[in-house]
Specification:
With 259 residues, the chain is mostly helical. 83% of the residues lie in helices and 0% in strands. Helix 2 (58-71) runs antiparallel to helix 3 (76-88), helix 5 runs antiparallel to helix 6 and helix 8 packs antiparallel against helix 9. The chain is elongated and about 115 Å long.
Amino acid sequence: MNASCIRHRIYICMSLCLLICCLFACATGRATTDQVDEKKRAKALQEMGNALVMKGDLRAGLGKLLEAHKLDSDNVDLNHQIAIALRDLGQYDLSLKYFQRTLSLDPKLSEVRNNLGTLYLLMEKWDAAIACFKEAISDILYKTPQYAYNNMGHAYYKKGDYDRAIECYKQALSSSRSYTLAHVNLAQVYEAKGALDQSVDAYRQAVLYAPKDAAAHLGMAKVLLKQGKKAEAKEELDLTIWAAPMSPEANEARKLLTQ
């Protein structure tokens, strides 16, 4: 074979290789473009779903979130959002699966641990809930430990362990003194223990930080009635109605005022 034939064959081989590389690059480019487009569609569906959830349309919002999940199943935030929507819709078993999926993608998310704990509270699995809250609190970088402490207090309260519940609520308040819900929950535990003066004090702290918290005013009124302090109780019942005139708490206050 002469040199000219050899050069010709080399040229043909190089041309074929170049063609194959071009075809591969085109196919890879199309695949990459398709993946980018899917991510964009998933992001748009996720944003639509969150907007609907925020408006209170949980079912429609969940539908959009699940559509997004088909396109981007490894999205940590998306899995977490689906878990919360399912929890709020009462679909506890399905919610648990998405919480577990979220944590399998990123085990270090303390906020997810806390929210999983709230699911276990709804399922009345108190010990599982407490374990989640403890994990969240153990993260020194967790920005809102008061929520986990408060939730853990509720779990101990439901277990009948009032002393531990009180410790947890106090820890929540040490992290956020103005956390009204923790004050209210602390008041309820003191009432359950029969420590009525301490219960009233906790309710007073609650309404100090949230003057229009109808539930806190009503709760304090009921404790004051137990103590026989009718004049003070009437004042709190009036404040309950003032705080939220159309609320169930206000309706209950009106009934108590007629008794």
